[in-house]
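F.,

This is the one I mentioned.
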């Protein structure tokens, strides 16, 4: 048996008998749930994050991510299965290293992979022989082999596929989803070589209930993740354009979609709204467009849907202006109450939330804007903090010239909202079950 086979078999044995030590780099919406699942499966798991606050909270058994069960986190910490640190040297102990750091866009909507690059450089300084590194952060096709591989080899002095292994397995996290969590969501794995794929898949099969689907390379896994979210981006763009057309024609787009849903094949419902939010759907298509230009290809359909979706916050303000005109009021000086700043219902995550851009656009027009969100007391945007009102009272509703619903939280009493508001612009069809609709306009 050659050395590479021995290295592989040793690692597989550690994974099977759960003596492998796991490191998770980045303890956010992806990393912390993953670290918890690995620890629950019986692996000693060490989380790394640059934020002292997160590290301290984990070590105290305190949860800060909605998809993690508070009691489970506390129990794992007390049992010594889960801990956290700000020291990268923990990598030298790890047999399995998962990178779960942010991959945002810069101000020009180009990929910012600095978090991935910097994490990989630090990992390379401490990477031991016989370990596997798995990137989970969403990125453009080629990142694992073109960026991570040379950094890891140069920094560690080890050879990929012989001394260590490298793979890509895209995160699939849907905050607030009551059915699919990290534990039971199918996982795609593509390694640099068959051995890396086999090792990574073995680990995920040991900790997850969902199917582990192996693909031929990291590029395939990287591309399939972009396809998932680009598919949603484009179809939401179509729904938003349908909403604009239907409004011009005096047709209820929500009723149109409900009717189309009755077709049992060939149609999947997507819904319009004030824009796209979250860390995936608004951003991932730009990774693909950026990479495609390297191959002298212009992604017309993808970019067109992006233009439509990006224009929706301004469209909401323009529609609001027309509503206010009915009451002989201008945007300038009007009191606007926004209901919901989280990017989707019943969560506290406001990353890339279109509601925040709606607020910004109203304020640019001189409107006086308050917001209420039962999950988000305050948010930070462009270096400034905006605080929401503490409660959704009769006075708050009656004092607003226009109430604009931008997130359909189920904690909100929409009958109460209807009864106490002058007028409501509902961009999410949140008030679909409210019978009295004389002061409601839909997107």
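My design for it:
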């Amino acid at each position: 048996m050659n050395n590479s086979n021995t290295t592989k078999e040793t690692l597989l044995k550690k994974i099977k008998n759960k003596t492998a030590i796991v490191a998770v780099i980045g303890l956010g919406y992806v990393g912390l749930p993953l670290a918890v699942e690995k620890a629950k499966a019986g692996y000693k798991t060490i989380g790394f994050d640059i934020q002292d606050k997160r590290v301290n909270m984990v070590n105290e058994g305190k949860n800060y991510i909605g998809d993690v069960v508070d009691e489970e986190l506390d129990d794992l910490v007390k049992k010594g299965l889960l801990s956290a640190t700000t020291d990268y040297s923990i990598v030298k102990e790890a047999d399995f290293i998962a990178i779960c750091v942010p991959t945002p866009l810069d101000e020009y909507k180009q990929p910012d992979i600095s978090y991935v690059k910097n994490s990989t450089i630090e990992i390379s300084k401490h990477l031991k022989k016989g370990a596997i590194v798995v990137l989970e952060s969403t990125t453009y096709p080629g990142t694992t082999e073109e960026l991570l591989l040379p950094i890891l080899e140069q920094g560690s002095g080890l050879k990929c596929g012989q001394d260590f292994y490298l793979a890509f397995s895209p995160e699939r996290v849907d905050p607030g989803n009551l059915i699919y969590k990290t534990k039971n969501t199918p996982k795609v794995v593509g390694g640099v070589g068959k051995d890396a794929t086999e090792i990574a898949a073995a680990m995920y099969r040991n900790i997850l209930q969902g199917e582990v689907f192996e693909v031929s390379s990291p590029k395939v896994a990287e591309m399939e993740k972009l396809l998932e979210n680009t598919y949603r981006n484009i179809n939401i763009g179509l729904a938003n354009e349908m909403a604009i057309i239907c409004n011009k024609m005096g047709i209820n787009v929500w009723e149109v979609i409900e009717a189309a849903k009755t077709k049992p094949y060939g149609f999947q419902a997507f819904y319009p709204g004030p824009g796209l939010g979250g860390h995936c759907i608004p951003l991932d298509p730009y990774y693909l467009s950026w990479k495609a230009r390297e191959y002298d290809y212009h992604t017309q359909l993808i970019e067109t849907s992006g233009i439509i979706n990006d224009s929706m916050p301004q469209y909401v303000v323009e529609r609001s202006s027309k509503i206010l005109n009915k009451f002989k009021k201008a945007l300038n000086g009007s009191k606007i109450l926004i209901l919901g700043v989280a990017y989707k219902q019943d969560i506290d995550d406001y990353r890339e939330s279109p509601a925040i851009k709606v607020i910004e656009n109203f304020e640019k027009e001189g409107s006086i804007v308050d917001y209420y969100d039962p999950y988000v007391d305050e948010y930070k945007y462009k270096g400034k903090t905006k605080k929401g009102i503490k409660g959704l009272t009769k006075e708050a509703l009656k004092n607003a010239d226009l109430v604009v619903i931008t997130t359909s939280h189920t904690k909100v009493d929409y009958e109460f909202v209807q009864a106490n508001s002058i007028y409501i612009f509902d961009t999410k069809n949140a008030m679909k079950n409210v019978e009295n609709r004389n002061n409601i306009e839909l997107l």
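The domain at 263-442 is CATH 3.40.50.720 (Rossmann fold).

Talk soon.
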